[in-house]
Amino acid sequence: MQPRKKRILADLLAHLPSARRAGTLAALSGISFFGVVAAMATAPDAPPPFVPQTIVERLTVAATTPEASDDLPFVHDERVQSGDTIESIFRRLNVRDTEALSFLLHDAEGRTALRQLRSGRSLTALVHGDGRLQALSLPVSRAGGRFSIERTADGFQVRSDEAQALSTVVEMRSGTIQHSLFGATDAVGLPDPVATKLAEIFGTEINFHSDLRRGDSFSVIYETLYDQGAPVRSGKILAAEFVNQGRRHTVVLFRGGDGREQYYTADGRSLRQAFLRSPLEFSRITSGFGRRLHPIHRNWRTHAGVDFAAPIGTPIKATSDGTVSFVGVQNGYGNIVIVLHRDRYATAYAHLNGFMRGLRKGQRVNQGDVIGYVGKTGWATGPHLHYEIRVNNVAHDPLRIALPAAQPLSRQELAQFREQTAPLVERIALLNRTTVAALR
């Protein structure tokens, strides 16, 4: 734009008379001069303009040396690991203190505490830089109890700590079956005890040996117990849902008026008295119900149960509430347990390697209680469980029999059930991004 302005001004002067042209030039020169002066002027009483300067000054720093008495211990917050001993804990914490080790190993309370170490719980130690132990606090009970020692002028002293309650956090997980249930639960970080309980809960609705399909999905809401901010163990499953072959199964935990907690379907049908389809968590069926060629006698006989292959020592669970009617040895069954249930039902568990300690005739057992362990006693060619369901002492196919349902809730109990479990059902729906349908 500047060249354009100059050209217009030159054109204007060329058209003016010579006298006016000289006056105009003088006026323009004056305007330009005063413009420059105005730009250079400063306001009256203003401070002089700031001119930055660089000043370099060498400062002396007083030398400091740590005092000999500054021996503050380091604070260690660790978790007890499976198989830990006090020696392995000391090595991990860099504790080099024979006096502390001797105290723990010879003090009566110390020996008791070391026998009650709980893996997963947190321990706290104060350790000096030279490896001396100042204080140690160990978890010793599931209820939150702790055993603590502290170094004093008179040696180590046991400090009494009140049991600290574990904090409970509600967690939610969901996943999709690709190959196996445990593979899917591992993929979403669901603890194994929760996955096992999940299979047990839905065992009354789903046969995990034959019904599981790729693409099935699950959602679960469960508790995790924390000790001083560190997860210790899994708690109860509060609600869960399993979609198997397109069919949706939902269960919630309900506390009745008597204080007992049981699992129910979303419409209030109890699962407690129903039968688990399998007394083992996970295994494979090696022989079904019906006529077969006997593996030992080599002749055709009726096989009155189902055989589940599993390693020796695998826990066997009662498939329903009942009363033990027999514990002992019976001919080809080997070690066998027979449990009587309501409505003339009975279950038999044969070829056991051993029985649950203290199991006896007349004892009440609940669904899911361990009653024995897989073995190969009696007429058995390998470790497996022979499982029977009998009605009026007549054997039926455990995989096909229509099992009895539980007694329904009363009208008053059903109203309490709906009120108590509605938030859980909403959480499941939120987890699955589904719409909650009102219970009717």
Automatic annotation (TrEMBL):
Cofactor needs: Zn(2+)
Q: Which residues cross the membrane?
A: 21-43
Domain called M23ase beta-sheet core: residue spans: 302-398
Q: Does the keyword Isomerase apply?
A: no
Task: Specify the superkingdom.
Answer: Bacteria
InterPro entries the UniProt entry points to: Cell_wall_metabolism_enzyme (IPR050570), Dup_hybrid_motif (IPR011055), M23ase_b-sheet_dom (IPR016047), NMB0315-like_N (IPR054512)
Gene Ontology MF terms: metal ion binding; metalloendopeptidase activity
Q: Which UniProt keywords apply?
A: Hydrolase, Membrane, Metal-binding, Metalloprotease, Protease, Transmembrane, Transmembrane helix, Zinc
**Pfam annotation, one family:** Peptidase_M23
Ranges for domain DD-carboxypeptidase/endopeptidase Mpg-like N-terminal come to 75-134
Gene Ontology BP terms: proteolysis
Q: Which PANTHER family match?
A: CELL DIVISION PROTEIN YTFB, PEPTIDASE-RELATED
Q: What is this protein called?
A: M23 family peptidase
